[in-house]
Specification:
Layout lengths: L1 E6 L4 E7 L1 E6 L2 E5 L6 E5 L2 E7 L2 E7 L2 E6 L2 E6 L2 E2 L6 H20 L6 H17 L3
Parallel strand pairs: 1-9
Antiparallel strand pairs: 1-2, 3-4, 3-6, 5-8, 6-7, 7-10, 8-9
Helix pairs in contact: 1-2
Length: 133
């Protein structure tokens, strides 16, 4: 078993024992099973999933960090939301604002900012998890 802890600046989202965790890291999705090698990585906005006793739960997470050590997975993220917590209208607005900002940078021949790209990825993850595009 793994101890999974997910914390945002506002609250502790989750603190429970799970069988496995899949995390969107900066270098790609990472599957974590018991006795995983120690790991510290930046989080990429996306879908974090975890399984326990055959049931899989999913959360949309934004940027942050993950640390894996001694069968404990600690996730520090700006936001973590279940499908039922996602405001799809707000997520669509976030996606639209990020797309406009990226388009403005492209038209001005400026480099797109990493923040704009992360905002877009976070909004897309929320909409994917909520089942609405």
């Amino acid at each position: 078993m793994l101890k999974l802890e997910i914390v945002t600046p506002e609250r502790k989202v989750l603190d429970e024992s799970v069988d496995s965790v899949t995390i969107p890291t900066a270098s790609g999705e990472a599957g974590i099973l018991p006795n995983h090698a120690p790991l510290i990585s930046a989080l990429k906005p996306g879908i974090l999933s975890y399984s326990n006793k055959g049931m899989t739960e999913r959360l949309a997470v934004s940027g942050g960090f993950v640390e894996v050590s001694s069968n404990k997975v600690s996730v520090l993220t700006d936001t973590a939301e279940t499908a039922s917590e996602i405001d799809t209208d707000a997520a669509r607005g976030e996606r639209e604002a990020a797309e406009k900002s990226l388009a403005a940078h492209a038209m001005a021949a400026l480099e797109e900012t990493e923040g704009d790209r992360e905002r877009l990825e976070a909004a897309n993850a929320k909409l994917q998890l909520a089942g609405s595009k």
